[in-house]
Design a protein that fits this description.
The complex is a heterodimer of chains A (490) and B (477).
Chain A: H1 11-20, H2 23-35, H3 42-59, H4 65-82, H5 87-111, H6 119-122, H7 146-156, H8 167-173, H9 175-192, H10 194-203, H11 224-236, H12 246-269, E1 281-285, H13 289-301, E2 305-309, H14 312-325, H15 332-335, E3 352-356, H16 361-365, E4 370-374, E5 377-378, E6 384-387, H17 390-399, E7 404-407, H18 421-424, H19 439-444, E8 446-448, E9 452-455, E10 462-465, E11 468-470, H20 475-482
Parallel strand pairs in A: 1-2, 1-4, 2-3, 4-7, 7-10
Antiparallel strand pairs in A: 5-6, 6-9, 10-11
Chain B: H1 3-18, H2 39-58, H3 70-81, H4 94-107, H5 112-121, H6 148-158, H7 165-181, H8 191-210, H9 215-230, H10 237-268, E1 276-280, H11 284-295, E2 301-306, H12 313-322, E3 326-331, H13 335-339, E4 344-347, E5 351-352, E6 358-361, H14 364-373, E7 378-381, H15 404-413, H16 419-432, E8 436-438, E9 443-446, E10 453-456, E11 459-461, H17 466-476
Parallel strand pairs in B: 1-2, 1-4, 2-3, 4-7, 7-10
Antiparallel strand pairs in B: 5-6, 6-9, 10-11
Helix pairs in contact in B: 1-4, 2-4, 3-4, 6-7, 6-8, 7-9, 7-10, 8-9, 9-10, 10-11, 15-16
Classes of the chains: A alpha/beta (490), B alpha/beta (477).
InterPro entries (chain B): IF-2B-related (IPR000649), IF_2B-like_C (IPR042529), NagB/RpiA_transferase-like (IPR037171)
Protein name (chain B): Translation initiation factor eIF2B subunit delta
Region (Disordered) (chain B): 1-116
Chain lengths: 490, 477
């Protein structure tokens, strides 16, 4: 699938091929990259997913937002199934879905008569809105773990999805879903905006006619899609009052998410001076660009000492590279070529950085003023997943009454509750713990190498996201602000 | 430190470095210095030599423009002072000691000050009080009084060949037996007066320079010294030596070997079928306990948690596995997973402080904390020889620092692919970057709250009873 030769497959190669490959090929490409862990960690996953969805939406030819929603949802399902533990993928898919819904609703309101009073436009993020979702969806925040999505996602979608190679196949498979969502829309929407429904319905073309904009020039590019849409519309008898430019709005919104992903570190770093005082001893863990930026920003104004826990078997090389050069050395390094200049080691700013092994965490904690951690993903209850060892660090910090600050972009915030923790934890290569050369040992001893730790919410004092600092108990609100209930279970 | 120096360095070094160790240094002709050196002076000198050697090893360019200075001359004259008939047979020949001394001299010229600063830059500020002379890794510069057995032992300790409180203590006592065997009291003094101060203390100093003494070693030495002092001068030397050797054997068996067996017996009864036992790093006595329980037919699983850079737990895990136990192994980063589902935690000790805190391999406190959090009983197996009157509140005031390079190198060498070149590159970059430091402490202090029980040869007690045991011990002995 990888078009770019001569390059190790990863985010960079994927983004390069994304521009040339057809969307379906890109989807398959990303799935294989995720499965092979060639794209891993939250940020690369989030960027890849957003870029892919951007293409998916851009390529989308129809005018029917529900088809777009189910298309995005379907792509999202495939991506999440490919790598359920990379929650950033699911988060981005949910945000794009919420975005599409928002655009549609916003358009409905503006298009509809002035009488129509939609509370959703005023408080777009907190109130329940247009219930155009699958009938079977739970209405509250999902209690299922992300791994269940692979099992739960498909049944909801009513038909199994063999891996299609063309968009036509997808949309045809999707017809039943489409029907369902339309039916639910037709019954529920008038309830919500009954007056609007009364007046607006006659405006729209009759079921038999094609939707407005059907003859748009794009239509010529790929004839089968509109035919399917047409069929779908005829079945549902409900053309939608969505204006031509909803797609443009959605694309803008996705680009905004991309911008956010780009700026998230800087935004988080802008809070640095509020949290770091002079002469502090700060303990951090594993390698993280976000934390590095945060500390660098503070280092411009203040002098402090950083104790860097090396996160031994899995991330120690990156940790050292971060300490020496200010950036990770594997994988991500080449992927972030464009932002090369922004990285400099903390030592260049006159900060003393001390590498300590994971085992010395408790010994040193009594002298640490603050623990600053990066995350893999944040759960809706305020708990988080971070590199293995984080639990011991936060626990030791708790024992010593040392505040724990967690830095996380909102894109890492997942609407998932951690009920079965073991399921969330990924296990890595035991060869990193014990060299495979040591045959007898590997043979007789069960070598375990967990990649992540779950940190319960009570061990975290504050979260700093790109939106600002929050108490762990408040995170559920931010989750609600960014995701729609109907999208929680994809 | 400056480049010109380094360029000018090699030519001057040639006569020294090119020669084999036994070749005479070119400047032995300065015996004018007073040949009497006090111990303090000797120590100072060793310190300086070691500092210089470290520099040399680091590849730092010495100043080299300095003439051989007084310290160098001292170094060369030093061996002459102790020319005593009681010298052990296989004493390393004094000449071998000279070349480093000479090299030291050339390196200790005008720029010794910047060198000191350089090493301090790499010292973690909080732990400055713990940085002392770097560990001896070679035998050069060792006092010629040091017995060959002790010389070898010291090197084995400094490179962790002999590691662990018990192993070091036993090895030291066995080496001391050899020392005592080959000892003859010089005329005009008595064994009780001479042996300790003049013959044993150089050995002890040498061992200290290789690695700080463990608590158990300290206790054993104290015991030995008391024993020697009590010897009646009237007793013939041969008998006195025999008594001492017997007493050392008795100490090893009573306080360590048999005590270990008793503890293993007691502690193994705490393991019941179906248990999942977590242990950290490697403790000989925990190993004995687990094997005893296994032999008794208890079916249980062991989770060995380990950490870089020493990876002691690997040996424990492979020994247990070879005896047929079901063992899983993970590193300290995965400790919270290892502790999940565990039913008991068995820990070894380096020492137990009289305030009930456990002083043990760094990381022990992490495991104990995680177990305490989950209400898993933490059981410490510890012989009374490891009990100490000292108290500790944190792991910073009293601790032992290992060279930071060990930590840096360990991480990179595990996977093997890097090879030594990768390690070298890393270390080089490390040294060149100012402000980068690494901390490699060896021990940490576990709060007494986390410990449910201490199993000793006197029975099982709570950590708060440690002072009582100490009192008992001192009353008895």
């Amino acid at each position: 699938m990888a078009r770019t030769v001569s390059m190790t497959p990863g985010l960079a190669s994927f983004l390069r091929s994304l521009k040339n490959d057809p969307v379906e090929a890109s989807i398959e490409h990303l799935i294989s990259l995720l499965k092979r862990r060639q794209i891993h960690n939250s940020r690369p996953c989030a960027i890849a997913t957003t870029q892919l969805l951007l293409q998916v939406v851009a390529e989308f030819k129809g005018k029917d937002s529900d088809i777009l929603i189910s298309r995005v949802r379907h792509v999202g399902q495939k991506l999440i199934t490919a790598q359920p533990r990379e929650m950033a993928v699911g988060n981005i898919v949910r945000r794009v879905l919420a975005l599409i819904r928002e655009v549609i609703e916003g358009d409905e309101v503006t298009e509809g008569s002035p009488i129509s009073e939609s509370p959703s436009s005023i408080q777009p993020l907190s109130t329940p809105r247009e219930p155009s979702h699958h009938p079977g969806l739970p209405s509250s925040i999902s209690t299922s773990s992300p791994l269940d999505h692979s099992g739960a996602g498909h049944p909801i979608d009513s038909s199994p999805h063999p891996s299609e190679s063309s968009s036509e196949a997808i949309s045809s498979v999707h017809r039943p879903v489409l029907t369902a969502s339309h039916t639910s829309y037709s019954t529920a929407a008038p309830l919500a905006t009954s007056l609007f429904g009364l007046f607006s319905r006659p405006e729209t073309p009759s079921p038999a006619s094609t939707p407005r904009g059907f003859q748009s020039p794009r239509h010529g590019d790929n004839p089968p899609v509109p035919i399917h849409q047409l069929k779908g519309l005829t079945i549902t008898d409900l053309p939608k009052p969505v204006p031509d430019d909803f797609k443009a709005d959605v694309l803008d919104g996705i680009r905004e998410i991309l911008d956010e992903l780009d700026q998230v570190d800087d935004q988080i770093a802008s809070y640095a001076l509020d949290h770091i005082h002079s002469n502090e001893i700060i303990l951090t863990h594993s390698s993280s660009t976000t934390v590095q930026k945060f500390l660098l920003t503070a280092a411009k104004k203040r002098k402090f000492t950083v104790l860097h826990v090396e996160s031994f078997p899995n991330d120690h090389k990156n940790t050292r590279a971060t300490m020496v050069t200010g950036r990770k050395n594997q994988g991500q390094a080449e992927e972030e070529e464009d932002v090369d200049d922004r990285f400099s080691p903390l030592t260049a700013a006159g900060i003393t950085v001390v590498l300590i092994p994971d085992s010395a965490v408790f010994a040193i904690m009594s002298r640490v003023n603050k623990v600053i951690l990066a995350t893999h993903s944040v759960l809706a209850n305020g708990g988080l997943l971070a590199a293995a060892g984080a639990h011991a660090i936060t626990k030791a910090a708790k024992m010593h009454q040392t505040p724990v600050v967690v830095l996380s972009g909102v894109y890492k915030l997942s609407p998932v509750y951690a009920l079965d923790l073991d399921e969330l934890i990924e296990y890595g290569d035991p060869g990193k713990v014990v060299n495979y050369d040591d045959g007898e040992f590997v043979e007789n001893v069960d070598v375990v190498n967990p990649l992540y730790d779950h940190v319960p919410p009570d061990l975290v004092d504050i979260y700093i996201t790109n939106l600002g600092p929050h108490a762990p108990s408040y995170l559920y609100r931010i989750v609600q602000d960014h995701y729609r209930k109907e999208d929680i279970t994809i | 430190m400056s480049t010109p120096d380094s360029i000018s360095d090699p030519p001057k070094q040639v006569p020294v470095t090119a020669g084999t160790p036994s070749s005479q240094a070119p400047k032995p002709s300065t015996p004018a210095e007073s040949s009497k050196l006090s111990n303090a002076e000797l120590k100072k000198q060793q310190k300086a030599e070691k500092a210089a050697r470290r520099l040399q090893k680091k590849g730092d360019q010495g100043p080299s423009n300095g003439q051989p200075t007084t310290p160098a001359q001292k170094a060369q004259t030093k061996p002459e002072k102790h020319a005593k008939p009681t010298q052990p047979r296989n004493q390393p020949a004094p000449p071998t000691l000279k070349p480093p001394g000479k090299a030291t001299a050339t390196r200790r010229g005008s720029s010794s000050v910047p060198n000191v600063i350089d090493s301090e830059v790499k010292n973690v500020a909080l732990f400055k009080h713990l940085y002392s002379v770097p560990r001896r890794q070679r035998i050069e510069g060792a006092s010629k009084d040091v017995h060959p057995a002790v010389v070898a032992l010291g090197l084995q300790m400094s490179n962790y060949r002999i590691c662990g409180s018990n192993a070091r203590c036993i090895a030291m006592l066995l080496a001391f037996k050899e020392v005592i065997e080959s000892y003859t009291t010089p005329g005009g003094t008595s064994l009780a007066r001479h042996l300790t101060s003049h013959h044993l203390s150089p050995q002890i100093d040498y061992l200290k320079s290789c690695r700080p003494l463990s608590i158990s070693m300290g206790n054993a030495i104290r015991y030995l010294k008391e024993l020697i002092i009590k010897i009646d001068p009237a007793v013939p030397e041969h008998d006195a030596k025999a008594t001492l050797l017997d007493a050392i054997d008795a100490f090893i068996s009573e306080r360590i070997t048999v005590a270990g067996t008793i503890i293993a017996q007691t502690a193994s009864t705490k393991i019941v079928s179906g248990d999942v036992v977590v242990t950290y790093a490697k403790s000989s006595i925990v190993m004995q306990t687990l094997l005893t329980a296994h032999r008794a037919g208890t079916a249980f699983r062991v989770v060995v948690v380990d950490s870089s850079p020493l990876f002691e737990g690997k040996r424990l895990a492979s020994v247990l596995a070879s005896h047929g136990l079901s063992v899983s192994y993970s590193l300290i980063a995965g400790a919270s997973h290892a502790v999940t589902g565990a039913t008991k935690v068995f820990l070894g000790a380096h020492a137990i402080m009289s305030n009930g805190r456990l002083y043990s391999r760094v990381g022990t406190a992490v495991v104990a904390m995680l177990a305490y959090e989950r209400d898993i009983p933490v059981i410490v197996c510890c012989e009374s020889v490891k009990f100490t009157e000292r108290v500790a509140l944190d792991s910073i005031v009293g601790n032992e620092l290992a060279p930071a390079e060990e930590l840096l190198a360990a991480g990179l060498s595990v996977e093997g692919k890097e090879g030594s070149k990768g390690v070298e590159d890393m270390l080089k970059k490390w040294r060149e970057t100012p402000g980068l430091q690494a901390l490699n402490v060896l021990y940490d202090v576990t709060p007494a709250d986390y410990i449910k029980m201490v199993v000793t040869e006197f029975g099982s007690l709570p950590p708060s009873s440690v002072p009582a045991v100490l009192r008992n011990l001192s009353g008895n002995g």
